[in-house]
Automatic annotation (TrEMBL):
Keywords assigned: ATP-binding, Ligase, Nucleotide-binding
Domain AMP-binding enzyme C-terminal: from-to ranges: 446-523
Highest taxon, organism lineage: Bacteria
Pfam families reported in the protein's UniProt record: AMP-binding, AMP-binding_C
Official protein name in the record: AMP-binding protein
């Protein structure tokens, strides 16, 4: 925690990491509060119809203790991977905490993933157990024969054996002592999309939560404050939704709202914020852009917002201050090393076009290809220095890719940027082909693989093209088998990506072409497609 507030320079100068010898996310975010004040409100779950159910820290502890015992009875122990294929809700937290009490590694899975995306992540991670709902169970059933490591499936909804009912397991089990963990023991495996090859699993230690805290405390303006309630529409399967708000709220004893919108609705969002007195939020820029078009209810009383994943323009920042009466503080990071640069409106000048300054405790620089810092004002790659509590342990089973991520002690983000004379960091562009759309980082390879699997596709390439609302949208270029290019095939290919990978990565435009620009070695020149 940040203990000395003041000017930004004073906050940074006075900050010191305090990483204990023993640390466990479930202990910090659940059990410690449950022992001191078991009736303290932890979570309010708002269902699709608006009905609200509350959970205390004591209830979360009881449920996760018993689920941990059930996991132990199924052979889940330290280092085993436990998948969580669920939308926002108490079951997500209970499963996270239960797995962490066993020393297992939580594998968050986006509920909209199709069978291809799920099959790869479950197989690559060697997940031993997965917890899901009825919708997810149908997807798991379709691919389970290809997952020899997946020994157990738990469902939150009624299901036939051998699937186990989550709530029955919780009621039948008797608690056992949790496994002790250190701050560097693995806790979380989050898959992130790259430009080449399939997604990579970023493995994080329990300390990743501590690494997020100074940023959250600054971005949400001296968080926590009395009366704070937190909510984000971002799914907890992503590092943003999980660690940019949900877990920090629980760590600090701030009541958390869970509610998942299948499609973001700004009017419903404002209604939820007003009804449940939400004061602190993580809102992706696309959500903010949509909310700016809606009417703000008088009952809305927002204290602070953090936002990142895409650039925020000055108009959006002005709207937050003038209409919502709250600062929107920018954040920067990535799955491998999150929340390392930010703004804090009450402690620093907010400069248009600049993300902000390095968060207390994190050393950020702009480096050249040899790993040397470039002069202020010059463009280079944004990099973060190790060791750093928020930094990943490495890519799952990919030591070569992990090594490529570093040059010396600098973690390379793949983003080009610059730093001005006062230490403000500005984003220039991606140094690769990752697509940033509505807050999601989308790699083209997984989409291209799906398109290339269609019998009428000879070759496909995917890029991001500019979009006023989403920053970028996915566009596909397809060479079709002779005589097959048609609107019907176009619709079928887009639907194929929606069904087999995920709706959020499906192309919003698809052009049939006679050829694709290739390098001498046969690689697709995506830059030519973007510029053409």
């Amino acid at each position: 925690m940040i203990r000395h507030w003041g000017t930004w320079d004073e906050i940074r100068a006075n900050f010191r990491w305090n990483i204990p010898a023993r640390f466990n996310i479930a202990e910090a975010c659940c059990d410690s509060w449950a022992r001191d004040d078991p009736d303290r409100l932890a979570l309010t779950h708002v269902a699709a119809d608006g009905a609200a159910t509350t959970w205390s820290y004591g209830q979360l502890k009881r449920a996760s203790d018993r689920l941990a015992a059930s996991f132990a009875a199924r052979g889940v122990g330290p280092g085993d991977r436990v998948g969580v294929l669920l939308e926002q809700g108490p079951e997500v937290l209970i499963t996270h905490f239960a797995a962490q009490k066993r020393g297992a590694i939580v594998l968050p899975l986006f509920s909209l993933f199709g069978p291809d995306a799920l099959s790869f992540r479950l197989a690559d991670s060697g997940a031993k157990l997965v917890v899901t709902d009825a919708g997810g169970l149908a997807k798991i059933d379709a691919i389970r024969a290809d997952l020899p490591d997946l020994a157990e499936v738990y469902a939150t909804d009624p299901a036939s054996a051998p699937v186990r009912n989550l709530w029955d397991e919780i009621e039948a089990a008797r608690p056992i002592p949790p496994v002790e963990t250190g701050p560097d023991d693995p806790a979380l495996l989050v898959y992130t999309s790259g430009t080449t090859g399939p997604p990579k699993g970023a493995l994080h230690a329990h300390r990743v939560l501590l690494g997020h805290l100074p940023g959250i405390e600054c971005q949400l303006e001296r968080f926590p404050q009395p009366g704070d309630v937190g909510w984000t529409p971002a799914d907890w399967a992503w590092i943003g939704g999980l660690m940019d708000l949900a877990m920090p709220c629980l760590y600090h004893g701030v009541p958390l709202i869970s509610h998942r919108m299948r499609k973001f609705d700004p009017d419903r969002a404002f209604d939820l914020i007003a009804r449940h007195k939400v004061r602190t939020l993580f809102l992706p820029p696309t959500a903010l852009k949509l909310m700016r078009r809606a009417s703000v209810p008088e009952a809305v009383d927002i204290r602070a917002i953090n936002s990142g994943g895409e650039s925020l323009g000055p108009d959006l920042l002005d709207w937050g201050r003038e209409v919502l009466g709250a600062p929107i503080n920018e954040i920067y990071g990535q799955t491998e090393c999150n929340l390392v640069v930010n703004t804090m409106a009450s402690a620093m000048e907010v400069r248009p076009g600049m993300i902000g300054q390095p968060v207390p405790g994190h050393e950020v620089a702009i480096i050249d290809a040899d790993g040397h810092e470039v002069p202020r004002g010059e463009t280079g790659e944004i990099a973060v220095k190790r060791p750093d509590p928020v930094m990943f342990l490495g890519y799952w089973n990919q030591p070569e890719k992990t090594a490529e991520k570093f040059i010396g002690d600098w973690l390379k983000t793949g983003d080009l940027g610059m730093m001005d004379a006062d230490g403000y960091v500005g984003f220039v562009s991606r140094d690769d082909d990752v697509i940033t759309s509505a807050g999601y980082r989308i790699g083209p390879s997984e989409i291209e693989h799906c398109l290339n699997g269609h019998p009428d596709v000879v070759m496909a390439a995917v890029v991001g093209v500019p979009d006023a609302l989403r920053t970028e949208v996915v566009k596909a270029f397809v060479i079709a088998r002779d005589g097959t290019a048609s609107d019907t095939l176009r619709d079928a290919l887009i639907q194929r990506v929606r069904d087999k990978v995920s709706p959020h990565v499906a192309p919003r435009a698809l052009d049939f072409v006679d050829s694709l620009p290739l390098t001498a070695t046969g690689k697709i020149m995506r830059r030519s497609l973007r510029e053409g």
